[in-house]
Protein backbone atom coordinates (compact mmCIF):
# COMPACT_ATOMS: atom_id res chain seq x y z
CA UNK A 1 0.00 0.00 0.00
CA UNK A 2 1.34 3.46 -0.97
CA UNK A 3 0.65 5.74 1.99
CA UNK A 4 1.01 9.41 1.04
CA UNK A 5 1.28 11.22 -2.27
CA UNK A 6 4.84 11.27 -3.61
CA UNK A 7 6.61 14.65 -3.33
CA UNK A 8 6.49 17.12 -6.25
CA UNK A 9 8.62 16.34 -9.27
CA UNK A 10 11.58 18.74 -9.26
CA UNK A 11 12.25 20.80 -12.39
CA UNK A 12 15.90 21.57 -13.02
CA UNK A 13 15.43 24.16 -15.77
CA UNK A 14 14.95 27.72 -14.52
CA UNK A 15 11.64 29.30 -15.50
CA UNK A 16 11.82 31.55 -18.52
CA UNK A 17 15.05 30.02 -19.83
CA UNK A 18 15.60 30.65 -23.52
CA UNK A 19 12.45 32.67 -24.24
CA UNK A 20 12.61 36.47 -24.20
CA UNK A 21 9.20 38.12 -23.80
CA UNK A 22 10.39 41.53 -22.62
CA UNK A 23 8.29 43.55 -25.06
CA UNK A 24 5.20 41.34 -24.70
CA UNK A 25 1.98 41.74 -22.74
CA UNK A 26 0.27 38.52 -21.64
CA UNK A 27 -3.16 37.81 -20.20
CA UNK A 28 -3.75 34.60 -18.23
CA UNK A 29 -7.27 33.59 -17.22
CA UNK A 30 -7.62 31.68 -13.97
CA UNK A 31 -4.19 33.08 -13.15
CA UNK A 32 -4.83 33.01 -9.40
CA UNK A 33 -4.28 29.28 -8.90
CA UNK A 34 -2.74 26.07 -10.17
CA UNK A 35 -1.75 25.96 -13.85
CA UNK A 36 -2.73 29.59 -14.51
CA UNK A 37 -0.58 30.81 -11.65
CA UNK A 38 2.37 28.75 -12.93
CA UNK A 39 1.87 30.12 -16.48
CA UNK A 40 1.66 33.72 -15.22
CA UNK A 41 4.84 33.19 -13.20
CA UNK A 42 6.75 31.63 -16.10
CA UNK A 43 5.68 34.34 -18.57
CA UNK A 44 6.67 37.08 -16.12
CA UNK A 45 10.04 35.39 -15.51
CA UNK A 46 10.60 35.53 -19.28
CA UNK A 47 10.00 39.29 -19.19
CA UNK A 48 6.33 39.65 -20.16
CA UNK A 49 3.99 42.11 -18.50
CA UNK A 50 1.28 39.80 -17.18
CA UNK A 51 -2.42 40.50 -16.59
CA UNK A 52 -3.71 38.01 -14.04
CA UNK A 53 -7.45 37.45 -14.51
CA UNK A 54 -9.47 35.57 -11.90
CA UNK A 55 -12.79 35.81 -10.11
CA UNK A 56 -10.94 35.14 -6.85
CA UNK A 57 -9.77 38.65 -5.93
CA UNK A 58 -7.32 37.66 -3.19
CA UNK A 59 -5.67 35.01 -5.36
CA UNK A 60 -5.39 37.28 -8.41
CA UNK A 61 -3.91 40.10 -6.35
CA UNK A 62 -1.43 37.83 -4.57
CA UNK A 63 -0.11 36.35 -7.83
CA UNK A 64 0.05 39.76 -9.52
CA UNK A 65 1.96 41.17 -6.54
CA UNK A 66 4.41 38.23 -6.62
CA UNK A 67 5.24 38.59 -10.30
CA UNK A 68 4.93 42.36 -10.73
CA UNK A 69 1.81 41.97 -12.88
CA UNK A 70 -1.66 43.45 -12.82
CA UNK A 71 -4.70 41.77 -11.25
CA UNK A 72 -8.15 41.87 -12.88
CA UNK A 73 -11.05 40.53 -10.86
CA UNK A 74 -13.54 39.29 -13.42
CA UNK A 75 -16.12 36.52 -13.62
CA UNK A 76 -15.54 34.97 -17.05
CA UNK A 77 -19.10 33.67 -17.05
CA UNK A 78 -20.23 37.28 -17.57
CA UNK A 79 -19.52 38.25 -21.20
CA UNK A 80 -20.00 41.97 -20.48
CA UNK A 81 -17.28 41.86 -17.80
CA UNK A 82 -14.70 40.90 -20.43
CA UNK A 83 -14.96 44.37 -21.96
CA UNK A 84 -13.09 45.71 -18.93
CA UNK A 85 -10.01 43.62 -19.76
CA UNK A 86 -7.11 44.99 -21.83
CA UNK A 87 -7.34 44.21 -25.54
CA UNK A 88 -3.74 45.11 -26.37
CA UNK A 89 -2.14 41.83 -25.44
CA UNK A 90 0.32 39.68 -27.37
CA UNK A 91 -0.10 36.40 -25.50
CA UNK A 92 -3.46 35.02 -24.41
CA UNK A 93 -3.53 31.99 -22.14
CA UNK A 94 -7.07 30.60 -21.95
CA UNK A 95 -6.78 28.57 -18.78
CA UNK A 96 -9.69 29.14 -16.38
CA UNK A 97 -11.87 26.10 -15.98
CA UNK A 98 -14.11 24.16 -13.67
CA UNK A 99 -15.40 20.63 -13.40
CA UNK A 100 -18.76 19.08 -12.54
CA UNK A 101 -19.17 15.31 -12.27
CA UNK A 102 -22.62 13.73 -12.81
CA UNK A 103 -24.27 11.23 -15.16
CA UNK A 104 -25.66 12.81 -18.32
CA UNK A 105 -29.23 12.03 -17.30
CA UNK A 106 -28.78 13.96 -14.06
CA UNK A 107 -26.41 16.69 -15.26
CA UNK A 108 -27.80 20.11 -14.22
CA UNK A 109 -28.38 22.17 -17.40
CA UNK A 110 -27.30 25.38 -15.68
CA UNK A 111 -23.91 23.84 -14.75
CA UNK A 112 -23.55 22.62 -18.34
CA UNK A 113 -24.17 26.17 -19.61
CA UNK A 114 -21.79 27.72 -17.08
CA UNK A 115 -18.97 25.38 -18.09
CA UNK A 116 -19.45 26.21 -21.79
CA UNK A 117 -19.55 29.92 -20.94
CA UNK A 118 -16.30 29.91 -18.95
CA UNK A 119 -14.37 27.35 -21.02
CA UNK A 120 -15.59 28.06 -24.60
CA UNK A 121 -17.40 31.40 -24.91
CA UNK A 122 -14.92 33.38 -22.78
CA UNK A 123 -11.89 32.07 -24.75
CA UNK A 124 -13.72 32.94 -28.00
CA UNK A 125 -14.56 36.46 -26.79
CA UNK A 126 -11.00 37.05 -25.53
CA UNK A 127 -9.52 35.87 -28.83
CA UNK A 128 -11.95 38.08 -30.72
CA UNK A 129 -10.92 41.01 -28.54
CA UNK A 130 -7.14 40.53 -28.65
CA UNK A 131 -6.57 39.30 -32.22
CA UNK A 132 -6.83 42.75 -33.89
CA UNK A 133 -3.87 43.96 -31.78
CA UNK A 134 -1.88 40.77 -32.52
CA UNK A 135 -2.64 41.09 -36.26
CA UNK A 136 -1.52 44.74 -36.19
CA UNK A 137 1.80 43.76 -34.59
CA UNK A 138 2.25 40.72 -36.84
CA UNK A 139 2.89 38.52 -33.82
CA UNK A 140 0.71 36.72 -31.29
CA UNK A 141 0.36 33.57 -29.25
CA UNK A 142 -2.89 31.88 -28.23
CA UNK A 143 -2.23 29.13 -25.69
CA UNK A 144 -5.32 27.14 -24.80
CA UNK A 145 -5.13 24.93 -21.73
CA UNK A 146 -7.22 22.00 -22.85
CA UNK A 147 -6.90 18.53 -21.31
CA UNK A 148 -6.60 14.87 -22.14
CA UNK A 149 -10.37 15.31 -22.11
CA UNK A 150 -10.08 17.56 -25.16
CA UNK A 151 -9.09 14.43 -27.08
CA UNK A 152 -10.78 11.65 -25.12
CA UNK A 153 -13.91 11.18 -23.05
CA UNK A 154 -14.63 9.89 -19.56
CA UNK A 155 -17.99 9.05 -18.03
CA UNK A 156 -19.82 11.67 -15.96
CA UNK A 157 -17.87 14.63 -17.37
CA UNK A 158 -20.18 15.58 -20.26
CA UNK A 159 -19.92 19.37 -19.87
CA UNK A 160 -16.15 19.37 -19.35
CA UNK A 161 -15.43 16.96 -22.22
CA UNK A 162 -17.79 18.87 -24.54
CA UNK A 163 -16.16 22.19 -23.61
CA UNK A 164 -12.60 20.94 -24.04
CA UNK A 165 -13.43 19.39 -27.43
CA UNK A 166 -14.98 22.72 -28.46
CA UNK A 167 -11.84 24.57 -27.33
CA UNK A 168 -9.78 22.26 -29.57
CA UNK A 169 -11.90 23.27 -32.58
CA UNK A 170 -11.77 26.94 -31.71
CA UNK A 171 -7.98 26.77 -31.36
CA UNK A 172 -7.61 25.18 -34.81
CA UNK A 173 -9.77 27.83 -36.49
CA UNK A 174 -7.71 30.56 -34.79
CA UNK A 175 -4.53 28.85 -36.02
CA UNK A 176 -5.73 28.93 -39.63
CA UNK A 177 -7.00 32.51 -39.49
CA UNK A 178 -3.99 33.75 -37.50
CA UNK A 179 -1.28 32.16 -39.65
CA UNK A 180 -0.99 35.00 -42.21
CA UNK A 181 -0.63 37.47 -39.31
CA UNK A 182 2.15 35.74 -37.36
CA UNK A 183 -0.29 34.45 -34.73
CA UNK A 184 -0.13 30.86 -33.54
CA UNK A 185 -2.84 29.01 -31.63
CA UNK A 186 -2.25 25.74 -29.82
CA UNK A 187 -3.76 23.52 -27.15
CA UNK A 188 -1.91 21.86 -24.30
CA UNK A 189 -3.50 18.62 -23.11
CA UNK A 190 -2.41 17.69 -19.59
CA UNK A 191 -3.34 14.56 -17.73
CA UNK A 192 -3.79 14.96 -13.96
CA UNK A 193 -1.86 17.94 -12.62
CA UNK A 194 -0.99 18.54 -8.96
CA UNK A 195 -3.28 21.51 -8.24
CA UNK A 196 -5.56 22.23 -5.26
CA UNK A 197 -8.48 20.92 -7.33
CA UNK A 198 -6.89 17.52 -7.92
CA UNK A 199 -5.38 17.18 -4.43
CA UNK A 200 -8.84 17.73 -2.92
CA UNK A 201 -10.33 15.14 -5.31
CA UNK A 202 -7.68 12.63 -4.21
CA UNK A 203 -8.34 13.20 -0.53
CA UNK A 204 -12.13 12.93 -1.05
CA UNK A 205 -11.73 9.69 -3.01
CA UNK A 206 -9.35 8.28 -0.40
CA UNK A 207 -11.95 8.94 2.30
CA UNK A 208 -14.80 7.57 0.16
CA UNK A 209 -12.96 4.34 -0.77
CA UNK A 210 -11.17 3.88 2.55
CA UNK A 211 -7.77 3.78 0.84
CA UNK A 212 -4.69 5.99 1.07
CA UNK A 213 -4.09 9.07 -1.16
CA UNK A 214 -1.12 7.28 -2.75
CA UNK A 215 -3.34 4.33 -3.70
CA UNK A 216 -6.02 6.64 -5.15
CA UNK A 217 -3.31 8.06 -7.37
CA UNK A 218 -2.03 4.77 -8.75
CA UNK A 219 -5.20 2.67 -8.76
CA UNK A 220 -7.88 5.28 -9.57
CA UNK A 221 -6.52 8.40 -11.29
CA UNK A 222 -3.46 7.06 -13.12
CA UNK A 223 -4.69 3.63 -14.20
CA UNK A 224 -4.45 4.65 -17.87
CA UNK A 225 -1.17 6.57 -17.56
CA UNK A 226 2.10 4.61 -17.96
CA UNK A 227 3.92 7.38 -16.04
CA UNK A 228 2.59 6.98 -12.52
CA UNK A 229 2.92 10.48 -11.14
CA UNK A 230 1.00 13.72 -11.20
CA UNK A 231 2.20 16.39 -13.58
CA UNK A 232 3.38 19.59 -11.90
CA UNK A 233 1.76 22.89 -12.89
CA UNK A 234 5.25 24.22 -13.70
CA UNK A 235 5.63 21.51 -16.36
CA UNK A 236 2.48 22.75 -18.10
CA UNK A 237 3.80 26.31 -17.80
CA UNK A 238 7.11 25.28 -19.35
CA UNK A 239 5.22 23.92 -22.38
CA UNK A 240 3.15 27.13 -22.59
CA UNK A 241 6.31 29.21 -22.44
CA UNK A 242 7.94 27.12 -25.17
CA UNK A 243 4.91 27.77 -27.40
CA UNK A 244 5.47 31.51 -26.90
CA UNK A 245 9.05 31.51 -28.19
CA UNK A 246 10.02 32.81 -31.60
CA UNK A 247 11.41 29.32 -32.32
CA UNK A 248 7.86 27.91 -32.30
CA UNK A 249 6.29 30.15 -34.94
CA UNK A 250 5.65 27.14 -37.21
CA UNK A 251 3.99 25.20 -34.41
CA UNK A 252 0.31 25.99 -34.76
CA UNK A 253 -3.02 24.20 -34.67
CA UNK A 254 -1.60 21.38 -32.57
CA UNK A 255 -2.73 19.64 -29.41
CA UNK A 256 0.25 18.85 -27.22
CA UNK A 257 -0.42 15.97 -24.84
CA UNK A 258 1.39 16.08 -21.48
CA UNK A 259 -0.30 12.89 -20.42
CA UNK A 260 2.39 10.50 -19.19
CA UNK A 261 1.75 8.27 -22.20
CA UNK A 262 -2.02 7.95 -21.63
CA UNK A 263 -2.66 8.57 -25.35
CA UNK A 264 -0.37 5.70 -26.34
CA UNK A 265 -2.40 3.10 -24.47
P1 LIG B 1 -7.64 25.61 -10.34
O1 LIG B 1 -8.99 25.34 -9.78
O2 LIG B 1 -6.43 25.40 -9.47
O3 LIG B 1 -7.58 27.08 -10.94
C1 LIG B 1 -8.59 27.56 -11.78
C2 LIG B 1 -8.68 29.06 -11.59
O4 LIG B 1 -9.69 29.53 -12.48
C3 LIG B 1 -9.07 29.46 -10.16
O5 LIG B 1 -8.22 30.46 -9.68
C4 LIG B 1 -10.51 29.97 -10.34
O6 LIG B 1 -10.84 31.00 -9.42
C5 LIG B 1 -10.49 30.46 -11.77
N1 LIG B 1 -11.82 30.50 -12.33
C6 LIG B 1 -12.72 29.48 -12.39
N2 LIG B 1 -13.87 29.93 -12.90
C7 LIG B 1 -13.70 31.24 -13.17
C8 LIG B 1 -14.55 32.26 -13.69
N3 LIG B 1 -15.84 32.04 -13.99
N4 LIG B 1 -14.05 33.50 -13.83
C9 LIG B 1 -12.77 33.78 -13.50
N5 LIG B 1 -11.93 32.86 -12.98
C10 LIG B 1 -12.40 31.61 -12.82
O7 LIG B 1 -7.58 24.71 -11.67
P2 LIG B 1 -6.35 24.06 -12.44
O8 LIG B 1 -6.31 22.64 -12.02
O9 LIG B 1 -5.14 24.90 -12.38
O10 LIG B 1 -6.95 24.06 -13.93
C11 LIG B 1 -6.67 25.10 -14.85
C12 LIG B 1 -7.03 24.62 -16.25
O11 LIG B 1 -6.31 23.43 -16.55
C13 LIG B 1 -8.51 24.28 -16.42
O12 LIG B 1 -8.97 24.71 -17.69
C14 LIG B 1 -8.53 22.76 -16.35
O13 LIG B 1 -9.60 22.22 -17.07
C15 LIG B 1 -7.19 22.45 -17.00
N6 LIG B 1 -6.68 21.11 -16.64
C16 LIG B 1 -6.42 20.80 -15.33
C17 LIG B 1 -5.93 19.54 -15.03
C18 LIG B 1 -5.64 19.12 -13.62
O14 LIG B 1 -5.39 17.93 -13.40
N7 LIG B 1 -5.58 20.02 -12.65
C19 LIG B 1 -5.74 18.60 -16.05
C20 LIG B 1 -6.01 18.96 -17.37
C21 LIG B 1 -6.48 20.24 -17.65
Secondary structure layout plus pairing:
Blueprint lengths: L24 E5 L4 H12 L3 E6 L2 H11 L2 E4 L17 E4 L14 H29 L2 E6 L12 H21 L4 E8 L2 E2 L1 H14 L3 H9 L9 E2 H11 L11 E4 L7
Helix pairs in contact: 1-2, 1-7, 3-4, 5-6
The chain binds nicotinamide-adenine-dinucleotide.
The site of nicotinamide-adenine-dinucleotide (NAD) has 28 residues, from α1 and α5.
What does this structure look like?
This protein is of the alpha/beta class and 265 residues long. It has 2 domains: 25-193 and 232-253, 3-Layer(aba) Sandwich (Rossmann fold); 194-230. Helices cover 40% and strands 15% of the residues. The chain has helices spanning 34-45, 57-67, 109-137, 158-178, 196-209, 213-221, 233-243; strands spanning 25-29, 49-54, 70-73, 91-94, 140-145, 183-190, 193-194, 231-232, 255-258. Strand 4 (91-94), helix 3 and strand 5 (140-145) form a beta-alpha-beta unit. Helix 1 (34-45) crosses helix 7 and helix 3 runs parallel beside helix 4. The longest helix has 29 residues, at 109-137. It is globular and about 55 Å long. The two termini are 25 Å apart. The structure holds nicotinamide-adenine-dinucleotide. Residues 30, 32-36, 54-56, 59, 74-77, 95-98, 118, 145, 147, 190, 192-193, 195-198 line the site of nicotinamide-adenine-dinucleotide.
